[in-house]
Structure formats: C-alpha cells, structure tokens
Specification:
The complex is a heterodimer of chains A (111) and B (112). By secondary structure, chain A is an all-beta fold. Chain A is built from no helices and 11 strands. In chain A, the strands form 2 sheets. In chain A, strands 2, 4, 5, 6, 9, 10 and 11 form a 7-stranded mixed sheet that branches. Chain B is mainly β. In chain B, 0% of the residues lie in helices and 60% in strands. The chains are: A mainly beta (111), B mainly beta (112).
Chain lengths: 111, 112
C-alpha cells in the first residue's frame, strides 16, 4: 500500500526554468492538496482539489499551476522558477474522515 | 490568515516526563488536528478533534479543545525518546473545511 507518492525527491533548478512535481495516491481520496514548508513558517497551502476537474487556490498560489484530470494524480507545475520557490513541497490527500495523508516531500532548490 | 500558532516553539524534556504543547487559531473551525513530523519526513496524523468535542484520547495522547478561547493543547504522557519530533496543529475554516492551515510547530526533544 503506497499511500501518497511524490516525485522527484530532490530537484535543483535555475531561475526561469519550469518543472512539474508529481503526486499520486492509491487510496481513492477525492481531496488532494499541495503545501510548501519553509524553515520556521510551518506548512502553507498552495492549491487543493476536491475531485477530478476541480481545483482551487490556497494561501500562496502565485507562481504555481495545478490540474486534476484523474482521482489519483495531482501534479504541481512551476512555470518560471524563482529563488523564492526554494522550499520543501508536500502533497497530501484526504478521505471522508478528514485526516491528511502526506507524501515524503520534494526538496526543491532554485538557483 | 487562519494559520495557527503553536507554543512553545521548542521543548526539551527527560524521558518519562509529560510534554504539553498548545495551539491557538483565529477563526471558527469544524475540526482541529495534530500531526507529527520526524526530521526530513512527511507529516503523520495523530488525532482529530471536532469543534463539538472538548477532549479526546488516543493511547498516550490527550487533546483538549476550547472553542471559546480558540485554543487546543496536546499532552503526551510518559514521553519516550522516539517521541522526538516536531508537532503541528492544523485547522480548517467553519465555512470551508477543504482548506487546512498549519501552525509553525513545536519542536520536542526527549532526552533518554
């Protein structure tokens, strides 16, 4: 039972490059979300989705795009990376009980 | 922002002692959750308490919720070295249970 799987685990980008962080869950959860974690600031919600075809913005959505074409996958796209996007990114999913299941994180450095 | 605030930011205790950490939030909620994060890992769900509940237990964990003060506390009894981790509270919003807000966490160190 894999749970929530994030790839890649580590990535280094140059300013202006684009990339996609992948997130997949095998628990048939309708709700999925992306967070970033910066030192001393806890987790901040970037985008979330309550089902296939439905996405909405969180606290810090600027610079990020998402889409939800299937229940299982929720990729996060950085269109033009900036040093301020250096962070650890977590994907999470949730079922009817409301508890979040997190992936192991993707560590992104933008030079 | 709804983001919660944990207190203290760091806590160091001896094995066997109890650890108490607090969380305050700003607006009405449906539920409040506590999570643990071991260094460099993803967060793990510990316990969920709904807005109409005042206290909840799970093993060595005891959570209280005071909605009038917009605060919650997490008590870990008889702590172990393996409890060393960061602990976060997470809240939703009363009118949008799809948005979760996390505090900045309490870093707990349990010395053997």
């Amino acid at each position: 039972n894999a749970g929530v799987t994030q790839t890649p685990k580590f990535q280094v980008l140059k300013t202006g490059q684009s990339m996609t962080l992948q997130c997949a869950q095998d628990m048939n959860h309708e709700y999925m979300s992306w967070y970033r974690q910066d030192p001393g600031m806890g987790l901040r919600l970037i985008h979330y989705s309550v089902g296939a075809g439905i996405t909405d913005q969180g606290e810090v959505p600027n610079g990020y795009n998402v889409s939800r074409s299937t229940t299982e996958d929720f990729p996060l796209r950085l269109l033009s990376a900036a040093p301020s996007q250096t962070s650890v990114y977590f994907c999470a999913s949730s079922g009817a009980a409301g508890e979040l299941f997190f992936g192991e994180g993707s560590r992104l450095t933008v030079l | 922002s709804q983001q919660g605030e944990e207190d203290p930011q760091a806590l160091s205790i001896q094995e066997g002692e109890n650890a108490t950490m607090n969380c305050s939030y700003k607006t009405s909620i449906n539920n409040l959750q506590w999570y643990r994060q071991n260094s460099g890992r993803g967060l793990v769900h510990l316990i969920l308490i709904r807005s109409n509940e005042r206290e909840k237990h799970s093993g060595r964990l005891r959570v209280t919720l005071d909605t009038s003060k917009k605060s919650s506390s997490l008590l870990i009894t008889a702590s172990r070295a393996a409890d060393t981790a960061s602990y976060f509270c997470a809240t939703d919003e009363a009118y949008n249970f799809n948005k979760f807000y996390f505090g900045s966490g309490t870093k707990l160190n349990v010395k053997p």
